[in-house]
Amino acid sequence: MIKEKIKNLNNTDLSILVEGEDNKGGLAFVVHGLGGFKEQVHIRTMAEAFLESGYAVVTFDAANSIGESGGMMEDATLTNYFEDLEDVVSWAAKQK
Prior knowledge:
- It is built from two helices and four strands.
- The protein is of the alpha+beta class.
- The chain has one domain (2-93): Alpha/Beta hydrolase fold, catalytic domain (Rossmann fold, 3-Layer(aba) Sandwich).
- It has a four-stranded mixed sheet with strand order 1-2-4-3, sandwiched between helices.
- The protein is globular, with a radius of gyration of 13 Å.
């Protein structure tokens, strides 16, 4: 398991969790909903299903959520959550 903090496009911290990094089945990104966080039961259930199927899994707390990333919940929008997903995918593409 790898836990990282990266900066998004707006220079806000994003908390990222990578699990099953040695799995060869592919890579899955599991994204929480508006106001959610990466440790919610349904997010963990989806991540574990991918892990059991041989995937490496990336979960993260979007900025302006109630998780470990920066920002204020009242500034949350679906657009900035999507932009954070793009930032996390770009980060992942540079990892081994």
